[in-house]
Write a structure and sequence with these properties.
Layout: H1 3-15, H2 17-25, H3 35-44, E1 60-65, H4 71-84, E2 89-94, H5 97-107, E3 112-115, H6 121-131, E4 135-138, H7 145-153, E5 159-163, H8 167-175, H9 177-184, E6 189-192, H10 195-203, E7 211-213, H11 222-225, H12 228-238, E8 245-252, H13 256-270, E9 274-280, H14 286-295, E10 300-302, E11 314-316, H15 323-326, E12 332-335, H16 348-351, E13 357-359, H17 367-375, E14 379-381, H18 385-397, H19 399-414, H20 419-434
Helix pairs in contact: 1-9, 4-5, 4-20, 6-7, 13-14, 13-18
Length: about 425
């Protein structure tokens, strides 16, 4: 193992010694958890995991996504890998219970889905000795020193796929570059989403020939997910009557729980046919959003409640995993996390349904996607609640402009699909080489 990696690993473990000790004693407190929680957290300690067979007919590929959001990327890459590596075995991990559940649902037996090991010496060693991967493929920015250094010690190639490095994360890594540089230089390949991501990895010391720009595999499966059956089901759950014009505000965060009701109140004063579907990014904000709707006199119900009686002006989404389908009902969509400085959310999900997309100025984490929508005239940036209300009013008033903008948004999405296949080609080549 490279001496720099060994030194980085030593300092990392000295700095995290209290966490290491907590990880060792954690099973003693597992009785306070439910059975499912206990199984998950013991799995993160690499305790009670199933034994994998010693003999492997083909390469064993371990993919990892941090949480629920990364599973569609993992699914896209895994599907293309399965086509290229017919005899391969796949292990897919996630660090959250919701992510693990999504992994199991998406792969449907094509991969062994397990909790991701905590980055502690004991769990990492136990997990890797159980899985024995021929190649490890973490997604986005999953850089965990103990795991990476242990795999590099075993000469296991590591490919950072769908790799992103935001300006904020880059600043943190650069401040600790003396520590992280030996680790990031150890990647066999970094498959970056954008040129900006590539340049940031290069500035951290990664060799130029090890970084390639691939685009974002997160979008590969969006067109196929936009199915008529899902749209009918979403429309039925919302229960809005004929003639309604629906605005979906997705992934609302922070002060946006105040901005969205304010904007909709102004909109509905001009457009009584307007209806709002409001989806907080985190369910704990549902009560705050409901309170703001009440302040503005906007009638509402929760999505989980049965539709009936007088039709409300708004439906508040209090469930996870349903937002994408709900975008199908929209005449226009707003993507949250963007009127506040939180980096935005994915603006191409409503685009998959040919819906015009609006977002705020803070789209740092999705700058490439926002720029592509604006360039294609499928998306618009708004500055605040007032400009959001004005732009929504324009779209509801002008069906020709609305339809044209929606088609342009769909075209912008179609221009970026295919990244998963390109990334899988490189991973498959490395995996096949690791088996020789």
């Amino acid at each position: 193992m490279d001496r720099g990696i060994g030194t980085a690993r030593l300092f990392y473990n000295l700095a995290t010694a209290p966490v290491q000790a907590a990880g060792f004693f954690a099973p003693l407190f597992a009785r306070a958890l439910t059975r499912e929680q206990k199984r998950f957290w013991l799995g993160r300690l690499a305790v009670g995991l199933p034994r994998l067979p010693e003999a492997k007919p083909g390469p064993r590929v371990w993919l990892h996504g941090a949480s629920l959001g990364e599973m569609q990327v993992a699914d896209s890459i895994l599907s293309h890998l399965a086509e290229r590596l017919g005899s391969a075995e796949f292990v897919l991990t996630s660090g959250t219970p919701h992510g693990l559940t999504e992994a199991q649902k998406r792969t449907a037996g094509r991969a062994l889905c397990l909790p991701y090991p905590l980055d502690l010496l004991g769990p990492v060693k136990r997990f890797v000795n159980i899985v024995r991967p021929d190649v490890y493929v973490p997604l986005e920015t999953e850089i965990w020193p103990n795991l990476l250094s242990f795999l590099m010690l075993r000469s296991t190639p590591v490919v950072l796929a769908n790799a992103r490095l935001s300006a904020r994360s880059f600043g943190r890594y650069r401040a600790m570059n003396r520590f992280f540089r030996p680790i990031v230089r150890g990647f066999a390949k970094i498959l970056a989403i954008s040129e900006a991501d590539r340049d940031r990895f290069l500035m951290l010391g990664v060799k130029k020939e090890r970084v390639e720009v691939m685009g974002n595999a997160k979008y590969d499966q969006l067109p196929a997910r936009a199915r008529a059956e899902a749209a009918r089901r979403a429309s039925g759950r919302l229960g809005f009557g004929p003639g309604s014009k629906v605005v979906v505000a997705g992934s609302i965060r922070s002060q946006e729980v105040e901005f969205i009701p304010r904007a909709f109140a102004a909109l509905s004063a001009k457009h009584p046919e307007a209806r709002l579907v409001a989806a907080p990014r985190h369910l704990k904000r549902v009560p705050d959003l409901v309170e703001e709707l009440k302040k503005h006199g906007i009638s509402h119900r929760l999505l989980s409640e049965e539709a009936g009686g007088a039709e409300p002006l708004a439906v508040v989404v209090d469930e996870l995993g349903v937002l994408f389908d709900l975008y199908s009902a929209a005449h226009a969509a707003f993507v949250g996390g963007s009127l506040v400085n939180l980096g935005g959310q994915n603006p191409l999900e409503p685009a998959a349904w040919a819906v015009p997309v609006l977002f705020g100025p803070h789209m740092d984490n999705f700058a490439l996607e926002a720029d592509s929508l604006i360039a294609a005239r499928g998306g618009e940036e708004v500055r605040d609640a007032d400009s959001l209300a004005r732009e929504l009013s324009r779209l509801l008033t002008d069906p020709e402009s609305r339809n044209s903008m929606g088609k342009n948004a769909k075209s912008a999405l179609m221009d970026v699909v295919g990244s998963g296949k390109r990334q899988a080609m490189i991973i498959a080549r490395i995996a096949a080489g690791a088996r020789k």
